[in-house]
C-alpha cells in the first residue's frame, strides 16, 4: 500500500469522512450529505493547502487519533479541543506538521460538537456519485471510522497557509435559526405557529447528522389527516406526531410524510452542527430565505 495513508488508532464515538456532499441526486432518493459545518471544513482545507472539495474527517464529541505513514500537514478546527502529536500539545486552528509514524490525537470537544481534521492532499477514498462523504442514512460512501482502518491520502498540490491561528466562530450558547414559514404551516393552529416562533426550544440529545431534534412545546395540528410523502430540503423543519420540530440536516431523507412548518436559512445551519444538547433554540420568522 502507498505511504500516502493513515491508520486509525482511536476512531472516537462517530468519525466520518466528509466533503462538499453529493448534491443533485435527490431524485434518486440520495441525500446531499457532506460536512455539517461546511465553513469550518473549508477553512481547515485552506489551512493545509487543499481545494475546498477535498475530503476531511468530521469527529463527534470524542475526537479521534490517527497515525500517518508519511509526513503530512494537518489542521484541526470546529469544536475547540486539545491536539497533540506524540503526546506533545500542538496548535488548534493552524497547520501542523505531523511526521511519519507519529500519533496525532484530536481530543474531546471542550465546547461544541464536531471537530474537522484536514490532511494535505485530502482523504482519497473512492468517490461515490461524485462525493467521498459518508452518508449515514443511505449507507453510501465510506463507513464510519473503526480502530485499525487505513485510509489513503492524496498528493499535496499547494503549500499550506502561513498563519499562526485562523479565527473561527465559537460554538453557539444560543442557536438562532431564521426560518421562512411554509409550505405546510397551515396544517397547524395559529397558536401553534405563534408558539413555534416565540417560545423557547432546546437541542435534544437525540440529534444526529440526519436531524436536529428539539425539546419544547408540542405544536398542535389544525389538520389531522395523513400527508402524502413529498420532497423535503436541507433545513426543512418537519413536525412528527409528538409535535416537536426536527430540523433536517445533511443526511436527511429526500421525502417525508410529516408536515414541514418552515425552512431554516442555509447560512444558519453550520451553527446547528456545533450546538450541544441543551443549547437554547429560537426560531425567528423572516420573509425570504
From TrEMBL:
It comes from the Bacteria. The keyword Iron-sulfur does not apply. Keywords: ATP-binding, Hydrolase, Nucleotide-binding. The keyword Coiled coil does not apply. Pfam families: CT_A_B (PF02626). Residues 27-289 form the Carboxyltransferase domain. Gene3D superfamilies: Cyclophilin-like. This is Biotin-dependent carboxyltransferase family protein.
Amino acid at each position: 500500500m502507498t505511504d500516502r495513508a493513515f491508520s486509525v488508532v482511536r476512531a472516537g464515538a462517530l468519525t466520518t469522512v466528509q466533503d462538499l456532499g453529493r448534491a443533485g441526486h435527490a431524485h434518486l432518493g440520495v441525500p446531499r450529505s457532506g460536512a455539517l459545518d461546511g465553513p469550518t471544513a473549508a477553512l481547515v482545507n485552506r489551512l493545509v493547502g487543499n481545494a475546498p472539495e477535498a475530503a476531511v474527517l468530521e469527529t463527534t464529541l470524542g475526537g479521534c487519533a490517527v497515525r500517518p505513514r508519511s509526513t503530512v500537514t494537518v489542521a484541526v478546527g470546529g469544536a475547540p479541543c486539545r491536539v497533540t502529536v506524540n503526546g506533545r500539545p500542538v496548535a488548534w486552528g493552524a497547520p501542523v506538521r505531523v511526521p511519519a509514524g507519529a500519533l496525532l490525537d484530536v481530543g474531546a470537544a471542550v465546547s461544541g460538537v464536531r471537530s474537522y481534521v484536514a490532511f494535505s492532499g485530502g482523504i482519497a477514498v473512492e468517490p461515490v456519485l461524485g462525493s467521498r462523504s459518508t452518508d449515514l442514512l443511505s449507507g453510501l460512501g465510506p463507513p464510519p471510522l473503526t480502530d485499525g482502518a487505513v485510509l489513503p491520502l492524496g498528493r499535496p498540490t499547494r503549500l499550506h497557509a502561513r498563519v499562526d491561528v485562523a479565527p473561527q466562530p465559537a460554538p453557539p450558547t444560543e442557536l438562532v435559526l431564521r426560518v421562512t414559514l411554509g409550505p405546510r404551516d397551515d396544517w397547524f393552529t395559529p397558536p401553534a405557529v405563534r408558539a413555534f416562533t416565540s417560545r423557547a426550544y432546546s437541542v435534544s440529545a437525540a440529534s444526529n447528522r440526519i436531524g436536529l431534534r428539539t425539546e419544547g412545546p408540542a405544536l398542535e395540528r389544525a389538520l389531522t389527516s395523513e400527508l402524502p410523502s413529498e420532497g423535503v430540503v436541507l433545513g426543512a423543519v418537519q413536525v412528527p406526531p409528538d409535535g416537536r420540530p426536527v430540523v433536517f440536516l445533511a443526511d436527511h431523507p429526500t421525502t417525508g410524510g410529516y408536515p414541514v412548518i418552515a425552512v431554516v436559512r442555509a447560512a444558519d445551519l453550520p451553527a446547528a452542527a456545533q450546538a450541544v444538547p441543551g443549547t437554547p433554540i429560537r426560531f425567528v420568522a423572516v420573509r425570504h430565505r
